[in-house]
Amino acid sequence: MHKRIEYNGKVIEITGSPQIGLIMATFGFFIGFAAVSLYGPVAKNLKEILGLSGFLMGLLVAAPNLTGSLLRIPFAAWVDKVGGKIPLATLLILSVIGMAGLSTLLYLYYPHLEPWMYWLILFFGFLSGCGIATFSVGIAQTAYWFPESKQGMALGTYAGVGNLAPGIFGMILPFALKSIGLTTSYILWFGFLLVGTVIYILLAKDAPYFQLIKAGVPHNEAAKLAKQLGQELIPTGSLIDSLKNSAKHIQTWALVALYFTSFGGFLALTGWFIVFWVQSYNIELRQAGLLMAFGFSLLASVIRIFGGWLADKIGGEIVSLMSYTIILIGSVVVILGGNTNFTVSLIGEILMGAGMGIANGAVFKLVPKYVPHATGGAAGWVGGLGAFGGFVVPPILGLFVQNYGVIGYSKGFIVYSILAGTGIIISWLLWRAYGKIRNKPIEE
Asked: Which superfamily does 238-444 belong to?
């Protein structure tokens, strides 16, 4: 799209297209979301060099997920005011600063790191994790470009492709560590993120409404002109009210709890499974990265699409009930595998990846059904606080290692058994109350 609009004697150029909007939002999300795998592949090295306890190691693996989850809510709200480009670029720039600090620290001191440097590494992890929060921004940025009839395809493509990043980076990084070393690997990652951020800033375009607002056109006129250009979704500036209204619905918090286990659990285990394989079975780091990627992260990302489709067919509640049962079975299987039966542990990992991916698709299908009058706010709570599980869970898993030694890596999955059991109960209650209402908004 390259159109000229005359307003009050001033010519305004509207650039970009839905295709460019989707490509650049997906690209920005992809390069930022890779931070989920920031410390998982090197956790063993840093644990030995810095003398970390299991809890501190888990905290380090989880660090990017703290900012990556909590910043989703305010930055999503910011999109309604200025469009997606500035918020997403801001998050990527913060992530670049984090990667620059980490790369510089490693270049100057690795492998002779001092124990006090752990807190610097943790801080840089928090900054790098800002890129993970691009998810909610990119969702809104993409939605504003597409008409409602095409948003399912667009948002499915956006989430599906972007979610592949942690698995791909978690798979590539161990090979890079082996061939070019830890310091060089992170310097290259910093370079990739920096170049990617520059490309995003140069090529990304906001939807027509936001370009008109930036040119000084008042809201009502900008909305009218944007609709003439094909933009159907116009921001109302009421996301804060939407957050308040959705928080009053108990169903919102039920979905937060479910997403805490499925997506928060996905984030946590994308970093943790590499540590699990290396420490429990003494598997070489590159192989551990492949096991995590293909047996868990990539599987969960791809099968998420199937979860959403299945929820359309038989209902989100029953799919949720089935998926959390699969997660429960998978966690028990990992526990039974201990650190002696590789095949059993691998089966457990695959079951958990499949269960979490299907659950992720089902849970977000239920958001507009349960909170139809405040869907945006509900999605913010579910996406932001649900992802917070990626920060909370790894330190708890680390405590099991701290208390039980190597066998603690498998024993720690009792945490997921408890979370999955809770998810089953919540899903069953939702099914009993609302399962007969298929794919229709629930009246207040």
From this structure: MFS general substrate transporter like domains (1.20.1250.20)
Asked if 313 and 367 touch (Cβ cutoff 8 Å), the reply is no
Identical fold at 17-204 and 238-444?
yes
Cβ count within 10 A of residue 123: 14
Q: How big, in percent rounded to 5, are the helix, strand and coil portions of the chain?
A: 80, 5, 15
Q: Please report how the helices 134-145 and 85-109 are oriented relative to each other, as an axis angle in degrees rounded to 10.
A: 150
Tokens of 171: 């798979």
Place of tokens 């560590």: 177
Q: How far is CA 182 from CA 89, 101, 111, 249, 414, in A?
A: 27, 15, 9, 47, 33
Separation between Cα atoms, residue 309 and residue 315, nearest integer Å: 10
User: pLDDT of 329-354, one tens digit each?
Assistant: 999 999 999 999 999 999 999 999 99
Q: How far apart are CA 370 and CA 430, in angstroms?
A: 10
CA dist 192 and 4 (Å) reads 35
Q: Which amino acid is at 243?
A: L
Output b/e per residue, 106-118; b: 16+ Cβ within 10 A: beeebeebeeebb
* DSSP three-state, residue 5: strand
The DSSP bridge pattern shows strands 10-15 and 2-7 to be antiparallel
User: Residue ranges of the chain with pLDDT lower than 70?
Assistant: 1, 148, 152, 237-238, 375, 438-441, 443-444
176: region left, alpha or beta (phi > 0 left; psi from -120 to 50 alpha): alpha
> Within 13 A of 42's CA, how many CA atoms are on the CB side?
25
Extents of the domains making up the chain: 17-204, 238-444
Q: What is the pTM of this model?
A: 0.88
The domain at 17-204 falls in which architecture?
Answer: Up-down Bundle (1.20)
Cα–Cα distance between 147 and 143 in angstroms, integer?
8
Pair 362, 370: CB distance under 8 Å: no
Summarised one tens digit per residue, pLDDT across range 359-412 is 988 887 888 788 877 767 788 898 889 999 999 999 999 999 999 999 999 999
